[in-house]
Amino acid sequence: MPAVSPENVSTVDVGIVGGGPAGLMSAILLARRGISAAVVEQRSQDEIRTTHRAGILEAGTVNMLVEAEIGSRVLSEGHEHTGTILSFEGEQVRIPLKDSVGRSVWLYPQNEVFTDLAAAWQREDGEIHWSVRETSVSGLESATPTIGFTDEQGRDRRIRAKLIIGADGSRSMCRRLIPDEVRTDYFTEYPYAWFGILCQAPPTSPELIYANSPDGFALISQRSATVQRMYFQCEPGTDPEDWEDDAIFDRIQRVLGPATELKRGPIISRTVLPFRSYVCEPLTYGRLALAGDAGHTVPPTGAKGLNLAFTDVKALIPRIEEFLAAPESGTAPLEKYSKTALDRVWKAQNFSYWATSLMHNRPDDDAFAYRRRRGEFDAITGSPQGRAYFADAYTGWA
Ligand SMILES: Cc1cc2nc3c(=O)[nH]c(=O)nc-3n(C[C@H](O)[C@H](O)[C@H](O)COP(=O)(O)OP(=O)(O)OC[C@H]3O[C@@H](n4cnc5c(N)ncnc54)[C@H](O)[C@@H]3O)c2cc1C
Question: Smallest Cα–Cα separation from 358: which of 344, 369, 367, 348?
Answer without folding.
Answer: 369
